[in-house]
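Sequence only, no structure available. Ideas?
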Amino acid sequence: MLLNILLWVPLLLLVSIVKLLLPFKAVRLTIDPLLLRIAEAWIAGNSFWMRLTQQLDWDISGIQDVSPRQWYLVVCNHQSWVDILVLQHVFNRRIPLLKFFLKKELIWVPIMGLAWWALEFPFMRRHSEVYLKQHPEERGKDAATTRHACEKYALVPTSVMNFLEGTRCTPAKQQRQQSPYQHLLKPKAGGITLALDAMGEKFGAVLDVTIVYPDGRPTFTQFLMGRVNKVVVRVRTLPVPRAQALAGQSPEQALRETCQLWVNHLWTEKDALISQILADKNGLQPLQ
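Reply:
I predicted one. Tokens follow.
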């Protein structure tokens, strides 16, 4: 994994510096596809060492009709850092490169932070409501960051990826949150609301992804040590939610309320699907 990073990330940064020094649309339209090809080669390298070192039984369905030339909004449940490798493995070169919303602090992760910056992943600050009341000047900055990123994504087909729970799901977090779901945390609609507000007309579909580890939630270390045996991935292609403002309601408020109702319904279905998969975990079929 480390050799794969050291092979592709320096090349990624070198090309990014050219784009930084020549911030013109014509240059961007030439450089961005090259950056995406480098990232896809990096992900293909990850898939290679995963096949080389892991005895994984993959059960994947729902990806037969996706396209690398379409804009997608991708949503998924979140249990482990392994989710990211799974998503990249499943979708690499099948849809445009996944762009994740990342915590601002992750930009300082050695090597990887620079790679995420080069690929223009949006870095978000997470502030509590108490903090925002004390520092009202911070309110709205994440929205501006999201809109700015999405404006760039409108130039080249992109998959905007959002973990709706906002953090990895654990039993302790479920209890603390008093989640109504058996396998999930409560979904947050803020991220997809901002994405839809910024470039809703560009998205051709929503990809609803459900990841299940039948043997239990793995840590990243457990995955690297080959202790994950099975991965189940279910993908549904859904229409993009559209909001119609009622009398006296602003378009922004209508979209926010529509998205929250939509994700609540989606999460109820996802929770039931996970229960069904776990109940039938012995019926897995290998990835063709």
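Residues 283-288 have pLDDT under 50 and may be disordered.
Hope that gets you unstuck.
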